[in-house]
Amino acid sequence: MAASKKIILLVPDGTGVKNYLYSKVFATREASLVLFHNFDPETVSELEQHVPLASTVRIPTYKESVREKFLRELIHLSRIQWNAKQANNPTILKFSRTSVRSLKLKMFYTLVKGAARLVRSYNSILKLEARYAKALRKNPYYHSIAAILKREKPDLLFCTHQRALPAPTIFAAARDLGIPTTTVIYSWDNIPKARLALRADRYLVWSQHMQNELQQFYPEIASEQIEVTGTPQFEFYRDAANILPKEEFYGRYGLDPGKRLLCFSGDDVRTSPHDPQYLEDIAEALTKSGMAATTQLIFRRCPVDLSGRYDAVLTKYKSLIVAMPPLWHQRAIGWSAVYPAYQDVKLLVSLAYYADLVINVGSTMAFDFGMFGKPCAYINYDTVKDPNWSVDTIYKYQHFRSMPSPKAVFWLHDREQIASVVRTALEQPETAINEWFETVVAYPETASERIRKVLL
Known about the structure:
17 helices; 39% helix; alpha/beta; six-stranded parallel sheet
């Protein structure tokens, strides 16, 4: 393929930066890469050190009209309701937006819910999406993007997150200009949640499992539009250069090489609001059982969780818990405004390599640590009574139906079991995580190459 092929990269969030710009997807110079972005100058400068970018284009700020927002939210709720019936899984309904504070927004979502009651067929959803597509083209943003695309004249538009708010308009402009488009389905749990906001010519998915889901929940997408490529995020673990020397890793964080390392990986506030309580339960169990003398508890927070909700626990157990914050540029709050430093790749890979166990609430980190044969323990009890959240709901989510066996992970069914389960996981760490991983992720060692071939 001629090196002159021009690809515009739309990378709306930090995970896309890590998985697609820091991986080997664009490590060669087989194409001319143009980064479409809203990044700060420091982030752009760092990206230019690791990605062979031909140029960067700062795109204008997207301002969503009321009509666009109403149609977008109505489509999302209507699809959520349709998906729940298709899968016979009422937990899918949990992904509709229900909690808002302002009176204005409460009134807005009341109207959305009322309108959704009138959407009674899949054909009606498709008609709403056609109306949404027309509304996008009336926004001045559409014309601004179209002007940029006309100027740049790319051969392809590639997006690393199918849900990003400005992406549907950008993809609509590209389609109208005859520019081929490809998007990644961001994560293995996204499809049932009705988080496909844009329409593309091609969709890249992690596995056959995800392709089946995409065709189940979006039957209008033809099978030939879907490519099973895997995801490059797991290739990092196959590269020994990403493992920091033990002396450097342990020395940087003051770790005791004579102790076993346990990792508690936190989630964002909305996904797992009671993580601080779970972290405290684990620290207390290790202390009371005497295991604190032989273990160290590493805390890795979710990169976009910039809250101080863990501070009290970290202070209380400062001799046991070692904070290992992600190396991300934390200049704002939210998934779309926080970006990783390249060194965070090595930090996470090294953590998975040196730690003996990861503990969390249903996180994909089970797969990350499983790359080194390290076990994961899923927390499976409610630490407080919360009418809006329960682990009983979490593990009924559609994406957990892909788990072939509950033996893929260890389970913490109550706080009294923590010490005994941790001890068992350390002494007999074997699980069936590989079987689950192979269901969800294809081509873990060659995803970058496969994605590159699709794009080039």
